Amino acid sequence: SSQGNCSQAGGTVPCKLGTLNNGAAATITIVVIPNTPGIIINTATAIANESDPNTGDNTATAETTVNAAGPPNDNFANAQVITGSIGSVTGSNVGATKEPPCEPNHYSIPGGASVWYRWTAPVSGNATLDTFGSDFDTVLAVYTGNNLCGLTHVASNDDDPIGGLQSRVSFNAV
After folding, report:
1. Which helix (H) or strand (E) holds 7?
2. Hey, which of 47, 124, 144, 146 has its CA 20 to 30 A from 1?
């Protein structure tokens, strides 16, 4: 059951719960939907009309870190599909994560901000993929498999001699 009501007044949410029986408890759930990363500090203070012999337990504070939302292809299951035999794709790894429990270390680098793409070669032969044009240091790896925990490494690179901090791999696509 529920009792009382809450309203919003700027950054404060006062709740009037009415009368609680001696020893009773009330739970208030407030959902905050942030629009930017950062730290949210919530403080709840109970104030009673009657005297309270123990005012030391009337305040609670919780701190929550809000991270940037990751890109849609942050997880293997949501890999962005690439089609054709030639082309390019633009994306971002801002807010991306390393996917537990078994995302491999790409090019033996632990990393932690990977995004996933899925490409099926339209014909067999040599294929080359690169991250040239990226404005940050990249690592690129190619795997086969339909399951994150069962991937087979095909090729990987970090810091291609031509691309500098960008990466390039060539492999036989079948």
Report:
1. none
2. 47
Condensed to tens digits (0 to 9), the pLDDT of residues 137-154 reads 999 999 999 999 999 999
Reduced to 3 states (helix: H, G, I; strand: E, B; else coil), residue 147 is coil
Give the distance from CA 3 to its chain's centroid: 36
Q: Are 98 and 112 in contact (CB under 8 A)?
A: yes
Total-model pTM: 0.63
Backbone φ and ψ of 78, nearest 5°: -110, 30
Kind and range of the H or E element at 153?
strand 152-158
Instruction: List, in sequence order, the alpha helices (H) in the chain.
Output: none
Q: Where are the beta strands (DSSP E) in 20-75?
A: 38-45, 59-66
Q: Report the alpha-carbon distance of residue 95 to residue 145 in Å, rounded.
A: 25
With residues binned 3-state (H G I as helix, E B as strand, rest as coil), the percentages for the chain, rounded to 5, are 5, 30, 65
Residues 84/88/91/97 CA torsion (nearest 10 deg): 60
Amino acid present at 79 = A
